[in-house]
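During the no-cost extension, the postdoctoral fellow (Dr. R.K.) reprocessed legacy sequence entries with the updated structure-token encoder. One reprocessed record is reproduced below for audit purposes.
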Amino acid sequence: MAFGLEEEWIGVKAKMSLLKKDQPARIAVLSAGAWGTALAIMLSRKGNPVKLWSRRREVAKAMQRERESRPHFPGVPFPATLQATDNLEEALDQTPVMVLVPASHGMRDLARQTAPYYQGQIVVSATKGLEVATLKRMSEVIREEIPVLPTDHLGTLSGPNFSIEVIRELPTASVVASPSSWTSTQIQELFMTPSFRVYTSGDQVGVELGGSLKNIYAIGVGIIEGLGLGQNARAAFITRGLAEMIRLGKAMGANPLTFSGLSGLGDLVLTCTGDYSRNRQAGLALGGGKGIQEILGEARAVIEGIATTEAAHHLAHKYGITMPIVDEMYQILFQGKEPRRSVPALMSRLKTEEVETLS
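Re-encoded structure tokens follow.
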């Protein structure tokens, strides 16, 4: 239960807990989707006592009983220090670190549920997406729902990370961003493994936007491939997509250089070209003639790029910037435009220079 302590003392308590470098850190990972499960296994392989929370009791009980990471990674055993639970209070009890990994549309509800049990934890957001109703980033949503959370106790983890490759301990890099360098370095230390390299950043806005917006362009690349438009078109689309990401990031206060890093270019390339990308697979289906409702009906997991397209479309209008690819994607996904009709619309735009001023 929450202790009802003053914010300053809560912050000191969390820092004291984390700074015991010779001892494993107790961690709560919420919730048990593919990415949450992968992070929980990775963290517990380091010897950290980890509680993996699932909203669904039957899922938590099955994982705990079988000691196996079903349904996402069947056959991958749970480390001895990993426990599954459906009890949120139990998961958060005496844990100095809380990792939030719901789908973006569920972040507000989950953060609200954790608020009564907040005890000064460092909070790590590992969700990529934007809240459509408010156009807010995940860190903004979390801060609203956990008002006692100190500003410098929240970090964002993002990067080109397919969960299955993290589980297999293949070489992976990511970035953690926080307004507090102390927090980002603590999270960096916590997540670093011989196969998972973590960099730090002070640009939380840019890191969150990069990890969210790239899903839009992954759907578009899938459409290009589904229509058989060739590799020239794919390369041009990814490049101009990056230009749009930078444009929106600048308007929202991000450092443009952040988008040349892991959460920008790195994640964009991976999600647009990787076979594990759900967003690219959705685009392939669209380019192959399937309708969006049929695709959603067949999807076994959230396709984050769809909601992000809607949010980015509204953000572009809010900040008065041009994002022609996002506009076309919005028309395809929400207004029923035939994907092939977007090609001449993009190719016949007014002539312009390629490189924009970054200042």
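The beta strands are 27-30, 50-53, 82-85, 97-100, 122-125, 130-131, 136-137, 154-158, 172-177, 196-201. The chain has two domains: 7-202, 206-347. The remaining legacy entries will be reprocessed before the final report is submitted.
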